[in-house]
Amino acid sequence: MLAALLLGYGRAVPLDELVNAVWETDPPATAEKQVRNAVSDLRRSLPFDDTTIVSAVSGYRLDAGAHLDAAAFQQMVERARKDAAESRPSDAVAGFRRALELWRGPALAGLGCPALEPQLAGLGEERLAAFEHCVELELGLGRHRGLTGELAEWANENPLRERLTEQLMLALHRAGAPAQAILAYERAQGALREELGVEPGPGLRRLRARILADDPALVAPESWVPRCDLPRDASYFTGRDAELGRILEAAGDRTGTTMVISALDGMAGVGKTTLAVHAARRLIERFPDAQLFIDLHAHTPGQQPLTPSAALEKLLRALGVANERIPIELEDRAALWRAQLAKRRALIVLDNAVDAAQLRPLLPGAPECLTIVTSRRRLTDLDADPITVDILPAADARELFLRVVGDDRPLAEPAATDDVLQLCGFLPLALRIAAARLRHRPSWTVEHLASRLRDQRHRLTELRTDNRSVATAFTLSYAQLKPDHQGFFRALGLTPGTDIDPTAAGALTEQRPMASEDILEDLVDAHLLEQPGPGRYRFHDLLRTYAARLAADTDGETDRRAALTRLFDHYLLTAATAMDVVAPTERAHRPRLKPPVSQDNHLFTYDRALSWLKAERANLLSVAGHAAVHGWPSHTFHLSATLWRFFHIIGNHNDALILHTQGLAAARRANDLGYQADSLASRGYINWWLGRYQEALADCDEGVRLAVDLRDRRVEGRALHALGLVCTRLGSLEEARTVLWRTLEAGKDTDDPVLEGYALRGIGEVYHHMGRIAESVDAYEQAISVARSIGNTTIEGYSLRGLAEVDSLRGDHDEALTKCLRALELARANRNRNIENRALRTLAEIRRRRGEYDHAFAAYSEALTVAEETANRYEEAHAYNGLAHTHHDRGDFAEARRRWGQAFTLFGKLGVPEQHGVGVQLEALDGKRS
Q1: Nearest to residue 193, comparing CAs of 229, 217, 159?
Q2: d(CA 781, CA 799)
Q3: What angle do CA 466, 469, 472 make, to 5 degrees?
Q4: Partners of 538 in the β-ladder
Q5: Which of 241, 418, 570, 695 is most buried as measured by Cβ atoms within 10 A of its Cβ?
Q6: Strand ranges inside 474-570, DSSP E
Q7: Sign of CA dihedral 493, 499, 503, 504
């Protein structure tokens, strides 16, 4: 009865079937009762808690859960058949074998129950069918030698099973025993005649005839033994989550009909091979038929890149293809390679590739395969998922360094560790080498390692071990370049800037911009340059050091200096052209330079000119600094004299301070008194903006003295104007008025309406502070008239803002608002952050006086943001003061006190008279609180 329930698992076995199973004939009248009693006994005897016998409508059902081997067998067979249908023969064979291992002979052997024989026969047929399917797959995999003995046993036990005999004959024939194959046929023929009186079927007879004829089509396919020759995974593998995720995701998408290729590209030493091997190791179970790795030697010291034909020979041998079967021709080898991998699930790592041409013949055709390619070049011609492997993020770089060092020294010296990471450029190869050196030198500190790496001349020498070197890795990439591209690469190593565009690179190398761009793009594809944005190119720090060293070792001093002179000329002359567009009315205040020959000057608009200056700001500063100390002093002080208004417009005062200090030093080194005076005047302006008033006074006084000695009224006027602004800020109003009138006279004497306009605007502000409102308005209006006559919107914007302030104090808030909004509009149209800052503060004051507190808060907050971004501490303090007034007007005295406290402190640091007024407000607030 238990056997009947087991054979009927998952369904209700009727009561009469159970009775028939127990009593073949003539069951007693109490048979059904006895069956029920037996079921009760069985329930108590079942060995597993999750196994039970459930009463059904007309019988019983056995729920055996996961304990029934017949059910497990059928599920395994179903999965194996699915694997076979989806062209995964190795997986299918493994599944069939696991299912067959559940059998220990015939099902329910020795039971002797005729009523259950049909079900037992059905189960046996399933076993036979599974075995035959498994054998068919194994024969297709070339595993015939291991099957002959097992097949002979099965055929002896099932002599009438013609398919088994066919498989046995085929295995014997392929194993080199055709005579035994014919004997197997004759045994099957005798059994069929004796038992059934029939001859073997047509399939068996055809196979006999083909064996006797030694049909070559019966030759076995190459024996397929799963192979893994992946290198060892790196124990220190760190990070790369995004890149690894893309590879694993691509490997998991097997729905298409095209083989998936993941193409990893990146600069030398960035860890492409390490990532590819790590990903391949993660994917072994998904690609059980083969996991192959081949180094194509694009950049291997002392070796030429493998030809596609040689690479295919190595790959075919790895699959077990005999030498005599490997064709000579490349196309034939590629076809055999694809045929070998047809319907296989194989993972191929093609490492260190030259280009797409080397790779194409090596690509499998089967959609079940995955290929991971690594190359230092971008493989734009390859139909692949491109994954650019970049330097490591700081956190991952630190983790890698810690793992390789293997002790706590990096944790004990975090600042020095960060320096090492920076000096290695976050490049994995450099990090591993540096960490390995530290690991093997327990007496070293991290700071000692960092100090060795800080010497740029010897940094690459430090980054090498016995068998690894950053410089060697770079050399292998450099050697692949064309000779003219090598020279271009070396020239780029001379540049002091942070990045470069095609026009500047063309000036450096005497190339047209389009030709220069082509070479730059090729260097990007070779990962010898990076492209941070369209039309911009830069080195990795270690590659810059390498290129500079190459240039010093390869190119003569004269050639190097000529190249840099061309580059510096380009930057200076293009900057002058751009400033002529940005500030056309101030040409007289800048050096007279010839226009650049490499630039389409007529294409400059205000927006394009200002955008170019912003994009090249860091490079212009770097050029000025390099030129000042390496023998091009005139380029430095000319850049200082050319760019002062640009830095005023964008509000980048700290950079301007550096530039004008460099310009002054260069002019002194060249003993050029005129440009000394000019640089002092420019630096005086900047020190005024930065709130460094004593430094500003010293610069302006010296600038005026030098200009007077030189009788240069133009420079004298500029220095006087800056001096007048400083005196105004410090509250020395009479002195400021006198100085600004001298500025106005200098402007008239030199026929310089720009200087006149600035002087009049400054006089208007002085009269405003003196309370001489009518004279203030007159000066501002004269300044506006001059500005409009020459098209100088900077003077106009400043003066309109001043008039708006006067109107608001007089109570004419509507007129004040109109003028202030116009000043703000002009500032923003010209992207002049200094005028914008002052206009926003004035706008906020007008809004506050009108009772529009929300608008006032917004304008003061925006003014504070601009002041902080441009390092304008004076305007920052005014923004705090205005916010305090607005909070006070709304009754929020606590916040007003906080903001006035900030303003008081900052005005005090600046040493300006506004501190006193804020102090009065704080005292009044304290009086209210008491």
Answers
A1: 159
A2: 7
A3: 120
A4: 530
A5: 570
A6: 530-533, 536-538
A7: negative
> How large is the average pLDDT for residues 203-215?
89
Q: Are 373 and 350 in contact (CB under 8 A)?
A: yes
Q: Which amino acid is at 387?
A: I
Global pTM value: 0.73
For residue 295, give both structure tokens: 């180094």
Q: What is the mean pLDDT of residues 542-571?
A: 95
**The two three-digit tokens of residue 477, written as one number:** 């990439």
DSSP string, 462-486: HSB-SS-BHHHHHHHHHHTS-HHHH
Q: Which 3 state secondary structure label does DSSP give 510? A: coil
State the virtual CA torsion across 752, 758, 764, 770 in degrees, nearest 10. -110
Q: What angle do CA 387, 392, 397 make, to 5 degrees?
A: 150
Q: Is the CB of residue 126 less than 8 Å from the CB of residue 323?
A: no
- Give the DSSP per-residue string, 792-851: -HHHHHHHHHHHHHHHHHTT-HHHHHHHHHHHHHHHHHTT-HHHHHHHHHHHHHHHHHTT
If residue 533 lies in a helix (H) or strand (E), which one and from where to where?
strand 530-533
pLDDT in tens, 634-667: 999 999 999 999 999 998 999 999 999 999 999 9
* Pairwise CA distance, residues 644 & 631, whole Å: 22
User: What is the structure's pLDDT at 125?
Assistant: 84
DSSP letter string, 726-776: HHHHTT-HHHHHHHHHHHHHHHHHTT-HHHHHHHHHHHHHHHHHHT-HHHH
DSSP string, 347-387: EEEEEEE--HHHHGGG----TT-EEEEEESS--TTS-SEEE
Size of the chain in residues: 930
**Number of other residues whose CB lies within 10 A of the CB of residue 575:** 25
Both tokens of residue 821?
């909004």
Q: What angle do CA 291, 265, 496 make, to 5 degrees?
A: 155
| Tokens linked to 522 | 């090729």
Which phi and psi (to 5°) does residue 793 adopt? -75, -15
Q: Which residue has the higher pLDDT, 121 or 756?
A: 756
What pLDDT digit, counting tens, does each position of 352-364 carry?
999 999 999 999 9
Strands (E), 10-58: 13-14, 52-55
Q: State in Å, rounded, how far the first CA of the chain is from the last one.
A: 101
Instruction: Supply the DSSP symbol for 236.
Output: T
Neighbours of 900 (CB within 10 A): 24
